[in-house]
Amino acid sequence: MATSVKPITTSRFYVEFDDMTDKLIKSVQEIKFQGQVKGYEKALASTKGGKTLRQSTSTGFEENPNFTIEVYLREGDMDFYNWFQETMPTSYSSGASATGKGKWGDNRKGGAITAYDPDDKAILRWEVKNAWIKSYKVSDFAADGGDLAFETFEIVCEDIRRVAPKQ
Predict the structure, then answer these.
(1) What's the predicted TM-score (pTM) here?
(2) Per the structure, how many domains does the chain have?
């Protein structure tokens, strides 16, 4: 008996963070983290018969897991931008243009990214732990443009795990 394969579309998803739900998310890009390996660069020892021993060992992550989201601009909705401002450091020099409130430790959030199949069933889920916004940019504006405006946020977290989706 042949099994039915339901492809996973990239257009059906939901992003949420603590106290931040029902946002108009344009995209989620590149959920990424990479392990760091050490020990392979050089031999550990030479043994009987002149055999060289090497060993590779995991030494954690090269950097914290991260991903990027694009959020459509809506009048009066500044939740993601305000979160960014709360976590950014205060100015290190007078006159700096980008300053935050320096409350990074108090404003990390938990969250999730959920993907849905064509039948509206949750099929994939990534849970995010202790996230904060690392960078911010806003889309271009043009007199002859017709696109919707959006903000881009790079989000860094302490942990991101693919888990069974909540039903």
Answers:
(1) 0.78
(2) 1
- Please check whether residue 52 lies inside any domain of the structure: no
Contacting residues for 82 by C-beta, under 8 A, at least 6 apart = none
The reply to whether 3 falls in a domain is: no
In three-state secondary structure terms, 84 is helix
Provide the domain limits for residue 85: 13-35+63-163
pLDDT tens for the 167 residues of the chain, in order: 667 777 788 899 999 999 999 999 999 998 887 777 776 667 777 788 888 776 677 666 667 889 999 999 999 999 999 999 998 887 755 555 567 787 878 899 999 999 998 888 999 999 999 999 999 999 999 999 999 999 999 999 999 999 998 87
CA distance 111 to 135: 18
